[in-house]
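Hello again,

I reread your note about wanting to compare the complex against the isolated chains. To keep things tidy I'm splitting this into two emails, and this first one only covers the full assembly. Below are the input lines as submitted, including protein chains and any nucleic acid or small-molecule components. They are followed by the predicted structure of everything together. The single-chain runs will come separately.
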Amino acid sequence: MSKPIIATTSLAGCFGCHMSLLDIDERILDLIELVEFNKSPINDIKKFTKKCDIGLIEGGVCNSENVHILKEFRENCKILISVGECAIMGGLPALRNNIPLRECLEEAYINGPSVENNEEQIIPNDEELPLMLDKVYPCHEVVKIDYYLPGCPPRADLLFNALVALITGNLMELPYECFKYD
Amino acid sequence: MSKVVNFSIDGKNCMAERGQYILDAARANNIYIPTLCNLPGVKPRGSCRICNVKVNGKLMTSCTTPVAEGMQVENNTEELLDLRKAIVELLFVEGNHYCPFCEKSGNCELQALAYRFNIMVPRYPYQFPDRDIEASSKNLIKDHNRCILCKRCIRAIKDEEGRNIFAFKRRGHKVVINVDSKISGSLNDELAQKAMDICPVGALIKKEQGFIIPIGKRTYDKHPIGYEFDVTSTETL
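Full-complex prediction:
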């Protein structure tokens, strides 16, 4: 039997969840024996080269590129997992959800105390740039998500246990100490 | 008339004093019923509904219902566990609960219940309501994003003359907790600390001491809420 294939991505996240995945220490050697990685920032594969079994999504959905990538993951992965508070509920980026988008952009590019050299008062609008959404969305409000692993970041043990359970087909071990929201 | 009342919880025979609330009687019999708005020593309010049990087949809040002779109480049924879980999930989506950077995280009873119920994600959509943070008081921050309107602060924090320092302001879905401006001067550091301690969430935060307890040493880092009952009940098995 061929190895299960994992893909990962960070949408509106900070890569903390990816760091936590690396934080499984020497067990990463076991993991590499068990699985193969496809599109992921860990190996720098930019495009899906085959269908994957498990997709790990870090971060919420804040712009059009996030929507595009998330849909691409849904199409290419059998099982999709929201990893971390941002993917599950928007997290820190969702703090902007009660501030109108224009106000956010004006604060960042025109009125903010650290803004310099923008006499023409330009808010970046090149068509190459992804379009910001009106607010930050949890991943499961954009595509169907199969499982959720909370935490900021999710504990390394939680991530490892979840992957082991999925790969071996057994029930997941969920010790109290590794199931946290912070 | 006898002072002792016989009743049952999930088929287990229990005894209580006449007039005792189901919740207190359950705990006296080493049975855990989860609570959120209830505060020992303060008149129960029944506002959060987490302690819902079925009494002779009917839903009742156990913190406000006195035990009666022969009462049959259901507590750990699948239906009730799911109902309580649903209430916690509703509270999470109804406010803005950002656990990752909340000062109360690890000591928060709402979060602790979510841990106990293994809530991975709420079944309801997040509302992201527009709420304020008030930091005008000299020693207390009121973060309405996190308030679950349990009325603990209103019921438990009094000034020297026994007057309520906290009160509700506005009505309906706009209701918020507020400090009575006429007696706000009596909210000393000790009372501000007590207010933060009894707040089941992070809506009341005493100033200048955020994140004072390190991760790993907070109340619910190692053991779930209600752990003391779980331990004793398995020991007696």
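For quick reference: Chain B has six helices and ten strands.

B.
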